[in-house]
Design brief:
- The structure is a single chain.
- This protein is mainly alpha-helical and 197 residues long.
- It has helices spanning 6-14, 19-38, 41-70, 79-82, 90-115, 120-139, 142-162, 164-188.
- α2 (19-38) runs antiparallel to α7 (142-162).
Length: 197
Amino acid sequence: MDSKPWKEQVVDLLYWRDTQRSGVVFGASLFLLLSLSVCSIVSVCAYVALALLSVTITFRIYKGILQAVQKSEEGHPFKMYLEQEVSVPGDVVHKYSEGALRHVNTGIKELRRLFLVEDLVDSLKFAILMWILTYIGALFNGLTLIIMALVGLFSWPIIYEKHQAQIDHYYGMVCSQVKDVVGKIQAKVPGMKAKAE
């Protein structure tokens, strides 16, 4: 793998800087998600494990036969990988678990604030979002949304990069229209004045 930070590697994947690597990641992820939409997760895991075992066992037998025919002493074909350390360091687990705990606590505090109506406008926005999600949930299941998000992640950056000027122009027009409508609604509904920025 590259010596770049992981965030740069993700950006390179999404912008298709290395088309072969991006294609493999996108194809494998899409294949896995489509498999999960057809079969249970237990079946998918079992089939993936069986496919991997089939490849490794076949390669091991092939190398064994090749060594017997050539009368060589190369040893186990996967010896290099068998001797590598594969444990997860405790400090890495601790670091990421602390980060996850921070995000969980922040999420809980935000949900408490929204559900207990600390700010009426934010709670109403959240209610509208949940109402919209009921319609989205009726149309799509979670796995379909994840598949659509994956396809969007791998296609949107390239589309935006190629058509940035047009997209920014139309996005600015939509934002100004939305601000005008929200401003009119906030002016007419009591208790919904815009927050001071």
